[in-house]
Structures are given as structure tokens and as C-alpha cells.
Amino acid sequence: MFITFYGVRGSIPSPGPATAGYGGNTSCVHVQLADGRHFIFDAGTGIRALGKRLMEISDPLTVLLTHSHWDHIQGFPFFAPAFQPDREIIVCQSLPREDATHMGALQQMNGHNFPLDLSRVPSRIRYVNEPTTFFRGEDLHIERKALNHPGGGFAYKLQEDGVTFAYVTDNELDPPGRHATTYDQWVEFVRGADILIHDSQYRESDVPQKHGWGHSFISQVRQLASDAQVRCLVLYHHDPDRSDAELEEVRLETEAFFRSHKQTIVTVVAFEGLVLEALGQRSGDAVLEVRGSPPKVKAARSSK
Ligand SMILES: [Zn+2]
Ligand SMILES: [Zn+2]
């Protein structure tokens, strides 16, 4: 399984010199399975660069959206494969059932919010509401779990060739009020995952005014990775105001946390261009490789 990061930012694209290292594009991760199939998690602005790369091949593509906040759908109208007449694209939108007027990745292409109407998009787009049952029976297992996030949405867990990959973004591990999924349920959902990608938007200094906005503290995510004994933790969906220097500080803090707890969890602060390679049963040996180096920036302060 190859996992490549095209957008790692939350809320809104944040280009500029302070974020150029880790990248300013919003959520988009490409996963190529051991059997060659392509899955795309979220269609933030990062999907534009991915789309250009995918023009080199003609394979069918599957887009799994966590929810339809702008930072997860806004890149779709600029996804070049959608404009190829013979391209087959499966889209799972994760729309709330009760709201028929809800605007998703495709409904935004209506002539008002985007110049073209969806009827003029030539690719063969197919909607799948229940990816867990749609893919059942193949050499692939997909599970979803309800996010603690305003408006709702789903996290995904994908298992193939002995590798477990979990994509959990826009999730508040300890929200005020009712939990769609409790902390203990999250621990069970991601337990033993080879790769856990989790929303890590906030630091303690960012709240309390953002409590209930649907994102997690980096410290809570570290604890989750520790309690669930994952193999590799990827901190993801960075706050648009988080500079490269602060993200470097987060990386050092997180590595120090696991060292002090005598845990060998591989930690990566997601950046555009990051590639993770997880080899499963077909290779005969489980291997996890992190390719690409974090941007060279100095931490704002020394780590504790
Ligand atoms: Zn988001
Ligand atoms: Zn959101």
C-alpha cells in the first residue's frame, strides 16, 4: 500500500512563506492498494495536483469523502480526470441523508458556485452511499465510524493485504455534549493500525474558544495512538495559522512524548509530498517505510 499526501491543511488553503514547507493545500490523500486500485480520501485543494498525476493512467478511481465542508470538497471541480470522457470515478459523498439540498463535492458544480454544471462533466461518475457493503467480498475490507464533528461525517478504516490504514480527520476526541463515537470506541476502531492519520488541528493555546468546533488537540491524538498501539501516527489537518516552525516544534514534542513513554510509534507530521509505503503479506514481510523528509525548518522553541 502506497499512501501519498497532496493536501495536509485544515479549514482553508494557507499558501505563503510561513507554510511553504509543510504545504498549504487542504485535505487530500491518495492510497494505492497492493492490487493496484486507487482510493482518494477527500477532495480538498490538494486533489488538483493529484489529478494531473493520474492523467498518466486510465484506471478507475474511487473518491471517499469524510464530509462536505469546503476544505474537503473544493478541489473536486479542478480534478482533471473528472473531465475525461471514459474515466470511471466512484464517489462516496457521506452526505447527511436528511438534507436533500445539501451541497457536496458534485453539487457545487451547478453553474453558480462553479462555472460548469455537473451535466457537462463527461466522466462516468457513479455514486456509492455504503462503501462498506459495496466493496464487501473483495480482498478489501472498509469500515466507517461517525465523526465527532459539526454536521457529521465518517472516518474510514481500510484493510488490504494485511495492512490496516485509518483515516480520521475532522474529529474531536473529547467534544462537549453528545459523542457520536466515544474515546474508547475510537481506541477500538484504530487499535493496532499500521497507519493512523488523525486530525491534529489544535494545541492547548488555541482553545477554549474552539472547543466544540470538531477538531482534536495534538496531545489527545498522541494519547490515542499510544492507547491503541498503532504502528505509525500521522498528524494531519494542520491549522491554517500553524507555521512550518511550529509544526517542526510539534514533531519534536511528539517524538519526545513517545520516547519518554518508551514507545516505538513512528511519528510523522504530514507534509505535501510525503509517501508512506506499507508492505503487507504479498511481500512476505511487513515493512513500513517513510519516504521524503520533513521540510528543513527550525522549531520556534526548543522541545520539552
Ligand atoms: Zn476540515
Ligand atoms: Zn470539517
Give a written overview of the molecule.
The protein has 304 residues and is α/β, with parallel strands linked by helices. It has one domain (2-98, 121-291): Ribonuclease Z/Hydroxyacylglutathione hydrolase-like (Metallo-beta-lactamase, Chain A, 4-Layer Sandwich), CATH 3.60.15.10. Helices cover 17% and strands 23% of the residues. It has 6 helices and 14 strands. The chain has helices at 47-54, 70-73, 131-134, 183-190, 218-228, 244-260, and strands at residues 2-7, 28-32, 38-41, 61-64, 88-92, 124-127, 141-146, 154-160, 163-168, 195-199, 232-236, 266-269, 275-279, 287-291. An 8-stranded mixed beta sheet has the order 6-5-4-3-2-1-13-14. Strand 8 (154-160) and strand 9 form a beta hairpin. The longest helix is centred in the C-terminal third of the chain and has 17 residues, at 244-260. It starts with a strand and ends in a 13-residue tail after the last strand. The mean pLDDT is 91. It binds zinc ion (2 copies). One zinc ion binds at residues 10-11, 27, 69, 71-72, 170, 237.
